[in-house]
């Protein structure tokens, strides 16, 4: 084997150093390093806003100070930060005003918070989509009222699973359009789509969500499909995905460490069927870990 000449070794060392510096600046797979993500905008619905976990920075949107966008911004030391998430938001509210009933208010399209200067965008949206929101069908239509199951429940259960799976497929296409619009409004941003957590474990019933067995089975199936479709949407849109469904086992309702409230509101922590601050912390940890890869 021939020995490398001294000046050749120096040249190789210089090239290696330059390559390492370039990697450090760009992060893994060409993504920006967290230190360059100095402008962050969060978009989403009540699972992002952490509705119910006051104190709020926006009472109408029920947007909490301890939601995962605020935690991510704090963990990464991001000072230019806008949280546009709002309880009740749908995919349409990224491009249209959101009318809020209680208290009566209006919020501008969430995409208005984006610009060419934005370097990081997180999005959590989808379950409120549909003429009848997917979340209503899965969690509320069969929930007993004063111990009585309403007629709408039997109508819902008589319909085939395809009625829900079609709504989920439509939701995924709407989220895909959201991601395209985000990339157009914030062309220099790294985009992260956040999925939804599991609600019920596969192997046991839960009195915190007293649904008929058929409705509980459909809920389990639907949330799995929601997250599968969101993951595929993220991949086809070439954005990052945070899989909170896969992270949820052991944190469902009626577990020893649930990430969300059940049928009853928990004042100061969560609204009915909405996440606790512990869920927000778990999401933030996953986002920060992803960005530091």
UniProtKB/TrEMBL annotation:
GO biological process, one term: triglyceride catabolic process
Signal peptide stretch: 1-24
Cystine pairs: 61-86, 142-153, 206-254
Gene3D superfamilies in the record: SGNH hydrolase
Domain SGNH hydrolase-type esterase: 42-278
Top-level taxon: Bacteria
Family annotation (InterPro entries): SEST-like, SGNH_hydro, SGNH_hydro_sf
Pfam families: Lipase_GDSL_2
Keywords: Disulfide bond, Hydrolase, Signal
Any one GO molecular-function label of the UniProt entry: triacylglycerol lipase activity
PANTHER family reported in the protein's UniProt record: LIPASE 2, SGNH HYDROLASE-TYPE ESTERASE DOMAIN-CONTAINING PROTEIN
Protein name listed in UniProt: SGNH/GDSL hydrolase family protein
């Amino acid at each position: 084997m021939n020995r490398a000449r001294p000046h050749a070794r120096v040249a190789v060392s210089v090239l290696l150093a330059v390559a390492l510096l370039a990697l450090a600046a760009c992060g893994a797979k060409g993504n920006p390093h967290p230190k360059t993500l100095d402008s962050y905008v969060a978009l989403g619905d009540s699972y992002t806003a952490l509705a119910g976990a006051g104190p709020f920075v926006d009472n109408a949107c029920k947007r909490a100070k301890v939601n995962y966008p605020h935690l991510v911004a704090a963990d990464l030391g991001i000072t230019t930060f806008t949280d546009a998430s709002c309880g009740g938001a749908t995919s349409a509210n990224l491009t249209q005003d959101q009318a809020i009933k209680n208290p009566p208010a209006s919020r501008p399209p969430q995409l208005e918070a984006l610009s060419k200067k934005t370097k990081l965008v997180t999005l959590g949206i989808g379950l409120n989509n549909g003429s009848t929101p997917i979340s209503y069908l899965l969690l509320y239509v069969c929930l007993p009222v004063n111990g009585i199951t309403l007629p709408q429940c039997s109508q819902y259960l008589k319909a085939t699973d395809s009625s829900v799976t079609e709504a989920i497929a439509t939701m995924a296409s709407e989220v895909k359009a959201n991601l395209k619009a985000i990339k157009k409004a914030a062309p220099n941003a790294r985009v992260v789509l956040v999925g939804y957590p599991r609600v019920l474990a596969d192997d046991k019933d839960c009195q915190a969500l007293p649904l008929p067995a058929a409705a509980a089975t459909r809920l389990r199936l639907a949330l799995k499909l929601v997250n599968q479709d969101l993951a595929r949407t993220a991949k086809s849109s070439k954005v990052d995905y945070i899989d909170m469904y896969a992270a949820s086992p052991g944190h469902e309702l009626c577990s020893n460490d649930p990430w969300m409230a059940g049928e009853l509101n928990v004042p100061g922590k969560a609204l009915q069927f909405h996440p606790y601050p512990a869920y927000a912390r778990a999401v933030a940890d996953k986002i920060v870990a992803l960005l530091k890869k």
